[in-house]
Structure formats: C-alpha cells, structure tokens
Amino acid sequence: xxxxxxxxxxxxxxxxxxxxxxxxxIAKQIxxxxxxxxxxxxxxxxLRPANVSVSTKGLVKVLDFGLAKALESPGVIANAMASPTMxxxxxxxxxxxxxxxxxxxxxxxKGRTADKRSDVWAFGCVLYEMLTGRAAFAGETVTEVLGxxxxxxxxxxxxxxDTPDGIRRLxxxxxxxxxxxxxxxxxxxxxxxxxxxxxxxxxxxLPRVTAAxxxxxxxxxxxxx
Length: 225
Description:
mainly alpha, 8 helices, 2 strands, 41% helix, disordered C terminus
C-alpha cells in the first residue's frame, strides 16, 4: 500500500478553525480528487476530515474510498459522531445506512441510495468544519446527529465574518437537504473555489494607491481596502 505521510485534515482542524487562505487550496484539491473518482463511477460515501491527508508541501490525498476501513474492532466507540455506521463491507444497496454520522447526507441517513450529490453534501460539511472548527451537525449520539442532519441547518453565524458571499452561497447550495436543489457536480465547486482563491490573491497583491501618488485615480484610492 502507498505510504501517505503527513497529518490528516482532522488533525489540523483540532487546533482550531483554518483561515480562508489555508482552507481554500486544500478544499479545491479535495474537490478535484472527488471529481476524479466520480468520473470513474466511484462514490466515496465517507468523505470526512479524518480521510484527508495533507502533506507538509500542501499536497492533499483523499483516503479510504468505498468505506474500505469502516469496520472497527469490537468495542465501545467513545465518539459517536466519528463512528462508522456501516455494518457490512458488502452492504452497498439502498436500505442500509452507509457513512460516518456527522458527514452523512439526508438520503444516506434515511438509508436511501447515495449518489454524487451525497459526496457534495459531505464536502460541504468538511469545508464548514475547516472554516469554523466545528462540525456542521453535532450530537451526543448517532441518533441525535442524524436528527440534526434531517431537521436542522448548520449555524451559519459561526462562519468567519470575512467569509466571502461566494463561499457562503457555495455552502448553502451544497448543504441543501433536497437532492434536487443541491449542487449536482463537485466540479462546479472546484471551479468556484479556484475562482474565489484567485480573487483573494489578486486582492492581497493589489497595491495601495494614495491620492498623493496618483491624482488622476482617486476613485481607486477611495475603493482600495
């Protein structure tokens, strides 16, 4: 097996929320990896921070496709939110709950068939957690978490105040409980994240212009951050 070095995204989030400048490049690579899998007809079904490795050079690898490591050793799992809910490695049909509770889509929570939009939902949960340091849907037990997923909305107030409107819209579209209203392709997210990241870089690099330096472009001075 390939040796993947570096901490997981869950390890990074454990230290607190990530800045937009750190989160967007990672999120874009996650979206690209999931899109590559979708193009091959593969649905991850268990995308979560613990299944994302980030090397010291910023290279992202998405791990554990197909719930390959969902079965744990017998015993009590202390953190219900992180407990895989699949009961058989061969159980991939509708009617069997698949996934990890806190990142499961509403259709998975209901035991229905997962599709690409289920991974889009999980990606939204991951991005929300990267920016807030908290799970989008939480509870003390798996049942409570699934109830939150089916009935509640994430606390959008936890997003950093400087979160761009584009990111907020992306999260809301990705976390639509109705599959028909949710983004259908994660590639759409990857493109938008690339665009938003590029805009942030251009804003950071935009030189400050003062009226003294440029008397003809006072409009730029007034609009500069």
